[in-house]
Amino acid sequence: MSGLLHSAEFWVFIAFLILVGAGFKKVSAALTGGLDARAARIKSHLDEAEKLREDAQSLLAEYQRKQHAAADEAAGIVAQAKAEAERIREQAQADLEQALKRREQQALEKIAQAEAEALSAVRNQAVDLAMAASRRLLADNLDEAKAARLVEEGIKDLSDKLH
Questions:
Q1: Buried b (16+ CB within 10 A) or exposed e, 52-86
Q2: Is residue 1 part of a domain?
Q3: Spans of the chain below 70 pLDDT
Q4: Number of structural domains found in the chain
Q5: What is the pTM of this model?
Q6: Residue-wise pLDDT tens digits, 130-159
Q7: Is residue 9 assigned to a domain?
């Protein structure tokens, strides 16, 4: 072993080991620092990606809530419009029925009026015919003396009826 301590190769080898050990310590510190910095950057990116994912999920949930609210509101509007349309239809039906009843009543009144006018016209014509027939009968069967006597009686009755 004493020969080994005097050998130049041995000391070169020891110097090489010391140099590699000292260099390894610096290189490993630099590598570890670089890897730690890279790991920190990666962790930062992962944290940012996680935050962005959470924000995206939050936005998605919010938009889904808004979509459901809008769908519910639209359904409410449709239901309200249907109810309003039904109310308008019912009102129109009631108005139509009232208008038909009024027109029916007007038609019945016109028919009654036409019947009354026709009856009056028939009565007037019957009176006219009866008077014409009476004149003819009186003219054919009444002499002047009887006619004068009837006129005097009529005048006398007329004066009694007027007083």
A1: eeeeeeeeeeeeeeeeeeeeeeeeeeeeeeeeeee
A2: no
A3: 1-2, 142, 159, 161-163
A4: 1
A5: 0.42
A6: 788 877 877 777 677 777 787 788 778 776
A7: no
